[in-house]
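so i finally got all the pieces together for this one. its two components total, 364 residues if u count the protein bits. some of the lines might not be protein, just check the labels. i wanna see the whole assembly predicted at once instead of chain by chain like last time, that was a mess tbh
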Amino acid sequence: MGVAADSQFHVLAVDDSIIDRKLIERLLKTSSFQVTTVDSGSKALEFLGLHEDDEINTNQPSVSPNINQEVEVNLIITDYCMPGMTGYDLLKKVKKSSSFKDIPVVIMSSENVPSRISRCLEEGAEEFFLKPVRLSDVNKLKPHMMKTKIKETDHHQFNQENEKHQEQNELEIGEAESQQESNGNKRKSMEDEALTRQNKTQIQWWPYCRFD
Amino acid sequence: MASIAQLQKQFIEYTTTLYSEGYLNDQFKQLQKLQDESDPNFLVGLVSVFLEDSEKLIKILETAFKQKTVDYEQVSLHVHRFKGGSSSIGAQRVTSVCVSFMNYCKEKNLDGCLWCLQQANHECILVRNKFEVLFRLEQQILKAGGSIPMME
């Protein structure tokens, strides 16, 4: 299986305000993104194919998110203040999910509350936009979506190579141990790379945040 | 019959007063820039949705304040929504009233809240009339074959 062709990025926008939904949709479409809007956190989870009560599935073999999701979502942008499930609750659920934790999440809020902002960023949000959201804010989204695409590419390649090695293990016991060792080393270096990228993402939020 | 140039001048003058009198702010300018050939009715559509939503919210708030015990938490949620919508449109005077409204809600000040509700209703009617004139001017320009001037 090769890398998916660089088709349009798909953004899932979540906001209980119909005006803000229309506005964010327009901003995203102007930036040539595919958009789906929903009016609540629970509808967002439904769209992703994640049930509200889903816990981290530790026994699940590592597969690409593309296989589990019903529709591929490259970024979630959500309002913070929503009745029922807040944007913060949605962020936590997405980040706790094994299938969707790598989807970048951006929070929007009409209130400039520093503790709220840091709480969201600590929980894994890539950006925090103050409303009303502008085109200049939306222009900051593409890099986050591209980083995920790169991660997915590496993940694909890693899975392919891993499968190949596992087949060899079954056939030849003698070579099994040395193969597993090299697998282990490979896995470690891949994880290190992924961690570095994650660190870079978290550090880079500083210039993107609006605190005025 | 006014010429295109005259209509455009009218449009610019009218828009300028809307900004100087505080009816609209920079957010509205941003929205005008978003409108293009692919979605020429975006702004009119968004404004209609805002005005409809505002009408609904005002009715909900009127009912809420008629209750024996006013649920200020619920009321705050509605005012917050009202404030958000007006801010997203750039209807500055409505937003300002909503800010005061939120404060009165926090204080559970019924008189303050009722006054703000009245003001919010009044400002919505005013800005609705302004939008109607603005969009009519736009239509006249387009009908005459001209283009709508960009406000900087």
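Strands of chain A lie at 10-14, 34-38, 75-79, 105-109, 127-130.
The interface with chain B takes residues 16-20, 22-23, 26-27, 29-30, 81, 83, 110, 131-132, 134-135 of chain A (CB under 8 Å).
anyway lmk what u think
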